[in-house]
Design brief:
- The chain is of the alpha/beta class and 435 residues long.
- The protein is 28% helix and 15% strand.
- The strands form two sheets. An eleven-stranded mixed beta sheet has the order 1-8-2-3-7-4-6-5-9-10-11, with helices on both faces. A five-stranded parallel beta sheet has the order 14-13-15-12-16, sandwiched between helices.
- The two termini are 25 Å apart.
- Bound molecules: threonylcarbamoyladenylate (TXA) and magnesium ion.
- The site of threonylcarbamoyladenylate has 28 residues, from strand 5 and strand 6.
Length: 435
């Protein structure tokens, strides 16, 4: 099918284009729309058949439910069984905005949307083009992120077209996503059983902001760690691999100095650093940056585009500098650790355990030290490629150990392996959905 490009930058000036997008949606079609988080792939939330086409176009497992998007609060009562006080307060503070609330669903929600669950996820996007289109339709829109399943969420119309051209009826061409990572998902479904609100996916509405509205919340352990074997996912999206570029990603936790020392030792053809702008100098391997360490919002905005650029450049392995987990940084970490299939190298721990890297660090050159001031030193030390038992030499598959039991799948081991994800030892390597 031909995918119609529909430019909309202002709902007032581009009124006819808004109508055109709404007409496609009224006819049961699929249209990608901008939101402040990421682009979404929308269909009429009340039309089960239209919603089914979303799963087909994305290649998304049918058991992964969708978020329903509304343009005004009055659309909510039709979607849910009951609106608890906590939901009212959250909506008052953070809607429209990047917060999704899960509540018991009403009978009007087709099974295709809720994937058979008794609950529904709802959000009111801040993006005025998104709300303008929903308003013109007069019905809510079910919309997951507009990427092919398993690949990074789209933050630009060009990303959507990379994944979806020819598979959907239309793409609204609008500005880049302002936030860059998907909405915070908070479940209130357990409140009636006396449970606390449960954070299922971190986003730009941070845990601190949630607590300000509803008091104590629980954070699902799967936000930062791999879902334990045999545990049922509270959010089906958790069990699928997310946000993954084709390149193998390894997440490296440590300050700027530790990170540079470590990645310089991994330099090899096809290997790059996925790092902050502050890290850029002093690296002896190519770098793809994702924002500034000092500005978590900039990391969120840049991350998914950076993951796509890794693949465009054909990198086989990327060593990603882990963000701090405060504020929106928690969301950035959550997406990256999934992109890395939970393979984490913790340099801070290693520093305590052994002298190999620690001596450099004890000199007091922390993250803020001049980039590159020790680069010659470091790459000199590391030129042997990690003979002290770094990840490239290890055979352990422990996903979250320190470097001495790291991923063991560096490109030195598997030259030219650009399909690392499929080789079987990455968690969830075949399932391939994102959120
Ligand atoms: O920012 C966003 O939320 C974007 C934009 C387009 O709004 N949408 C998005 O949708 O990220 P999606 O489908 O890619 O991610 C929705 C996540 C999935 O992990 C899904 O499993 C979870 O929310 N989810 C949806 N409904 C749920 C429910 N009833 N119970 C538990 N988890 C649910
Ligand atoms: Mg998604």
């Amino acid at each position: 099918m031909e995918t119609k490009r529909i430019p909309i930058y202002s709902i007032l000036d581009d009124h006819e284009a808004v109508e055109e997008a709404a007409a496609l949606l009224r006819a049961g079609g699929l249209v990608a729309i901008p939101t402040e988080t990421v682009y979404g792939l929308a269909a009429n939330a009340y039309d089960g058949q239209a919603v089914s086409k979303i799963f087909e176009a994305k290649g998304r497992p049918m058991d992964n439910p969708l978020i329903v998007h509304i343009s005004e609060f009055d659309m909510l009562p039709d979607l849910v069984e009951d609106i608890p006080e906590e939901a009212l307060e959250l909506a008052r503070l953070y809607w429209p905005g990047p917060l999704t609330i899960i509540l018991q669903k009403s009978d009007k929600i087709p099974d295709q949307v809720s994937a058979g669950l008794p609950t529904v996820a709802v959000r009111m996007p801040a993006n005025t083009v998104a709300r303008g289109i929903i308003g013109a339709c007069g019905f809510p829109l079910a919309a997951p992120s507009a990427n092919r399943s398993g690949s990074p969420s789209p933050t630009t119309a060009a990303h959507v077209l990379q994944d979806m051209d020819g598979r959907i009826d239309g793409v609204v061409v609008s500005g880049n996503a302002q936030v860059g990572v998907e909405s915070t998902v908070l479940s209130l479904a357990g409140l009636s059983e006396g449970k606390r609100p449960l954070l299922l996916r971190p986003g730009a509405v941070t845990p601190q902001m949630l607590r300000a509205a509803v008091g104590e919340i629980d954070i699902d352990p799967a936000v930062l760690r791999q879902l334990e074997d045999g545990r049922q996912a509270p959010s089906p999206g958790m069990k699928y691999k997310h946000y993954a570029p084709k390149a193998q990603v390894v997440l490296v936790e440590g300050d700027g100095e530790q990170y540079r020392n470590y990645v310089n030792r991994q330099a090899a053809p096809g290997v790059c650093a996925l790092c902050f702008e502050e890290d850029g100098q002093g690296l002896s391997l190519p770098a793809v940056t994702y924002g500034r360490a000092a500005d978590p919002d900039s990391e969120a905005r840049a991350l998914f585009d950076a993951l796509r650029r890794l693949d465009e450049a054909g990198y086989v392995t990327a060593y990603a500098h882990a963000p701090a987990k405060d504020g929106v940084g928690l969301a950035v970490y959550n997406r990256l650790v999934r992109a890395a299939a939970f393979q984490v190298v913790r340099l801070a721990e290693e520093q305590e355990q052994g002298p190999a890297y620690g001596t450099q660090n004890s000199a007091g050159n922390g993250a803020g030290g001049e980039p590159g001031s020790k680069a010659g030193n470091v790459s000199g030390n590391g030129a042997d490629g990690g003979s002290s038992g770094g990840p490239s030499k290890s055979s352990s598959r422990e996903p979250s150990g320190g470097p001495s039991n790291g991923p063991g799948r560096g490109p030195e081991n598997e030259p030219g392996n650009s399909s690392g994800k499929g080789s079987g030892d990455r968690p969830e390597s075949k399932t391939g959905e994102e959120g």
